[in-house]
Write the structure tokens for this entry.
Amino acid sequence: MFNNTDKRYNQYSAYLKNKFGVKVYKITLDAGFSCPNRDGTISTGSCIFCDEGGSFSQAHSNLLAIEDQIDEGIKNLSTRFKAKKYMSYFQAYSNTYKPVNELEKIYTSALKHPDIVGISIGTRPDCVDNEKLELISSFKDDYYTWVEYGLQSIHDRTLKKINRGHDFDCFLRAYELTKNKGINVCVHVIFGLWETHDEIMQTAQKLAELGVDGVKIHMLCALENTKLAKIYDSGGIDFMDEDEYIQTVCDFLEYLPKTTTIHRLAGNGLKKNLIAPRWLGKKMDCLNKIDREFIKRNSYQGYKYS
């Protein structure tokens, strides 16, 4: 139903293949960024779910120069998947949390390889300003350019509980400024944050109202050496089971417009660090169940959008 596939949602990987004519692979990069939450600038400690890797999923470290991380990523992906085109993805921590002159050097170094077609920069809404977004916007004529904001929820009560360090209005200001620069925006949300089903759907409806370009859905999970792991060990939270998550994902996507690309639906953290819920380790199984649930419902992304 979307991008010449049988998917009932606008799968980002299929969207990229349709756009560029070949499958495009993300190369995850670590440029040694930190975070205003983690370094104590705005709060004490990190978000309760964040581990020491700052959500970084790859094996190479920031001991390698960005160009070397790119070369290593291309070598691995071309060998494993015969990949031909790539996007540079700054994933770990808050990747706008440096002065603009340093950011320019970092981002430019990630775009030197001739097979790089785009750049995606993961960050927080309280770590951008007009000057930084002007820099990012300067790449958009030559590269497919995204900023990914970790919102997690539109509810300030939830953001406070997870020690996010910013409120929803902060996100709205950053979102408006980013869109005014002509930059694509992907919004990260987390299911299972002590919220009701209705509260999660309110987040979906607000993102639909904003017309966000992309959404990345995460399931709240406890990773080793996180505050959330301690909460889980003390019995302070019960995670969604897989069936509830699948139902919630489909409900959420039904509210989003068809134009919103879906960047992630399953899989959180490295398996070796995952404490709970254990079903998250079976990513493809979860994705297949989401497909089957949409078929069972005879619905699709945008089914409830108006």
About this structure: The mean pLDDT is 93.
